[in-house]
């Protein structure tokens, strides 16, 4: 009996040590039950949710609110498809998700924000938190209430201490990165006047570009999103007072009017935009771009030329930011999508760099006004520090053009069972099982993951 107890303590000690060297932590879900009474619900009518890791020490009054990505739904059919998974229902969300990168709670992995209050707002409305349609179709029972979700979550966080914030950031990746743009000034208005409040958009600078056939497929798509969700009322009035609401879904038409400081982390060859704006399935019915979109190393010279043209178009669209120190940018030449919430691209020994500066350093220096950062990388393939995405073949086929794939969301598609995709998850599994054989197996697996 005594030997068994010593063995259990030994396993727990080893687990604790392994968790200390892992690159992610796990944070439980918070369901905002009182949001239902306000009509602030997911597509299926379930309450919204977020994950909250409380700040400590000097970061106790600092807040980082990150919005999850996951594409959009542009009509009843595509919204119904999301209604039964985590992108449309909090009932299907994982109860634990990994916090890494800018959400990491360890100083060595996230030196400037590790002890802040860090929140990941789950995405279940399909409109970058802009929708607000009162009527609910009795047949589909779809709720288009993303704008209300934003308000309800903010109210909940303000009540939990965010109203006393001294420093605050609204951020997000992909569709969440667009959320941080569309709600940037609104977020600022919620917080104390004397607080330092800024916005960070990761892979959220979607451009109104033409596809390989010369068509503006993405403009039509965003127009359908705005119409389906009734988004116009929640888009920045500084844009809708001048332009059609469908255009106000594109950052290039509104960032010059954003008054709150904002920083953009984006790849000039954003893999989602290459796959869905430059070469969507509707413009490539024969699948000539299939292999190229999965891995940029497979692209032909002609395809690379078109991608260089897309980069030129992207840089032209982002020049509206100007050179103001309040508006920063880290535009690398990687084939990537979402870089702030993955440890390997946020801050690690081999992370992407511009001017010998990591994304973590650039964002922190800009936020704390240590120095401005306004860097654009040279053309592909000039940057040897890039982490270029290589997609699984199933991630690209007709019917999956504008999808949730490609975001850095760490939650699983099934509730309660996170995907075992990094070291921390394997360690967690073993620590729960507390088995010697399981621990040995995991050590072998961790060695293979290096």
UniProtKB/TrEMBL annotation:
Q: Tell me which GO cellular component terms the UniProt record holds.
A: plant-type cell wall
Residues in the signal sequence: 1-24
Region (Disordered) spans which residues? 393-416
Q: Which InterPro entries match?
A: PAE/NOTUM (IPR004963)
EC number, UniProt record: 3.1.1.-
Q: Which residues form a coiled coil?
A: none
Q: Mention one GO biological process in which this protein takes part, according to its record.
A: cell wall organization
Asked if Transcription regulation is a keyword of the record, the answer is no
One Pfam family per UniProt: PAE
Keywords, in A-Z order: Cell wall, Cell wall biogenesis/degradation, Hydrolase, Secreted, Signal
Major enzyme class: hydrolase
Q: Where in the cell is it found?
A: Secreted, Cell wall
What domain of life does the UniProt record list for this protein's source? Eukaryota
Q: Where is the composition biased (Polar residues)?
A: 404-414
Record-level Gene Ontology MF annotations: pectin acetylesterase activity
Query: Does the keyword section mention Signal?
Result: yes
Family to which this protein belongs: Belongs to the pectinacetylesterase family.
Function per UniProt: Hydrolyzes acetyl esters in homogalacturonan regions of pectin. In type I primary cell wall, galacturonic acid residues of pectin can be acetylated at the O-2 and O-3 positions. Decreasing the degree of acetylation of pectin gels in vitro alters their physical properties.
What name goes with this protein?
Pectin acetylesterase
Q: Which source organism does the UniProt entry give?
A: Glycine soja (Wild soybean)
Q: What is the lineage of its organism?
A: Eukaryota, Viridiplantae, Streptophyta, Embryophyta, Tracheophyta
């Amino acid at each position: 009996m005594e030997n068994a107890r010593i063995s259990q303590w030994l396993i727990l000690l080893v687990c604790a040590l392994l968790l200390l060297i892992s690159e992610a932590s796990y944070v439980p879900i918070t369901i905002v039950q009182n949001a239902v009474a306000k009509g602030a619900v997911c597509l299926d009518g379930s309450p919204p949710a977020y994950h909250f890791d409380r700040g400590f020490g000097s970061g106790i009054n600092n807040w980082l609110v990150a919005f999850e990505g996951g594409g959009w739904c542009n009509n009843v059919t595509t919204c119904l498809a999301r209604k039964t998974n985590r992108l449309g229902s909090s009932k299907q969300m994982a109860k634990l998700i990994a916090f890494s990168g800018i959400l990491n709670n360890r100083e060595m992995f996230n030196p400037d924000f590790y002890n802040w209050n860090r929140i990941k707002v789950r995405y279940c409305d399909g409109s970058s938190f802009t929708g607000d349609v009162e009527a609910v179709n009795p047949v589909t029972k779809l709720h288009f209430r993303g704008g209300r979700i934003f308000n309800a979550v903010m109210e909940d966080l303000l009540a939990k201490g965010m109203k006393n914030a001294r420093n605050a950031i609204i951020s997000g990746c992909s569709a969440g990165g667009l959320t941080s743009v569309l709600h940037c000034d609104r977020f600022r208005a919620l917080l104390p006047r004397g607080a330092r409040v800024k916005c960070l958009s990761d892979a959220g600078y979607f451009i109104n570009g033409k596809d390989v056939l010369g068509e503006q497929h993405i403009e039509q798509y965003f127009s359908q999103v705005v119409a389906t969700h009734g988004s116009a009322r929640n888009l920045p009035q500084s844009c809708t007072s001048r332009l059609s609401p469908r255009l106000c879904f594109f950052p290039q038409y509104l960032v010059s009017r954003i008054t709150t400081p904002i920083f953009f982390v984006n790849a000039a060859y954003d893999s989602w935009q290459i796959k869905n704006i430059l070469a969507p399935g509707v413009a490539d019915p024969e699948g000539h771009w299939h292999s190229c979109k999965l891995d940029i190393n497979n692209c032909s010279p002609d395809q690379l030329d078109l991608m260089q043209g897309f980069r030129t178009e992207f840089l032209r669209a982002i020049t509206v930011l100007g050179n103001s120190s309040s508006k920063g940018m880290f535009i690398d030449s990687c084939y990537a999508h979402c870089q702030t919430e993955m440890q390997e691209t946020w801050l690690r020994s081999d992370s992407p760099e511009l001017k010998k500066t990591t994304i973590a350093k650039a964002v922190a220096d800009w936020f704390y006004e240590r120095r401005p950062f306004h860097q654009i990388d040279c053309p592909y393939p000039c940057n040897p520090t890039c982490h270029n995405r290589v997609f699984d073949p199933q991630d690209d086929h007709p019917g999956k053009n504008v999808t949730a794939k490609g975001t850095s969301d760490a939650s699983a598609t099934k509730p309660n069972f996170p995907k075992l995709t990094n070291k921390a998850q394997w360690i967690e599994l073993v620590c729960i099982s507390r088995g010697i054989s399981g621990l040995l197996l995991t050590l072998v697996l961790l060695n293979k993951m290096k």
